[in-house]
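User: I'm preparing a small set of examples for a lab meeting where we compare how different chains pack in three dimensions. I only have the primary sequence for this one, and I'd like the structure in C-alpha cell form so I can line it up with the others. Please keep the answer compact; I'll paste it straight into my notes.
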Amino acid sequence: MYQKKKVINKVHEKGSRNNPLSDEQKTNNKEKSTIRVRVEHILIQASQFSPENERIYYNVAMLYDFLGDKELAERYLRKCIEIAPDMLDGYNSLLEFYTNNNKPPAATELTDEMRKKFP
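Assistant: Understood. Below is the C-alpha cell output for the 119-residue chain.
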C-alpha cells in the first residue's frame, strides 16, 4: 500500500516470538525512533515556549495519532480544544479520532457539545 501511494512507512515494525525482526528491520526501527524523538522534542519544547498556541497541541496530537499512540493523541486534541474552544478543526479531529477508534459514547457526547457551540 505504501509503495503504491509513494509514501514512506514511518511506523515501527513488530516482531513476534516465532517471527523475530531482521537486522535491517531493527536498524530501520532505530532510525524511526531517532526521528520520532527529535520531532517529539521540538513540538513539546514549542508547547512550553508558547503554551497557549492551540496549533502546537493539534500538531502534537496528529503526530501521536500517526505514530499509533492513541492515548496521547486524544490527550493533546483535548488540550487543543481546551485552549481554543472555538477551533472547529480541533473538534472535528477529535470527533474523527473517536469514530475511528470505536468510541461511540465519546463521539456522541462531543457531537452534542459541538451542536451547542457551533449551531
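A couple of notes for your slides: Residues 23-49 form the longest helix (27 residues). The CA atoms of residues 5 and 11 lie 16 Å apart.

User: Perfect, thanks.
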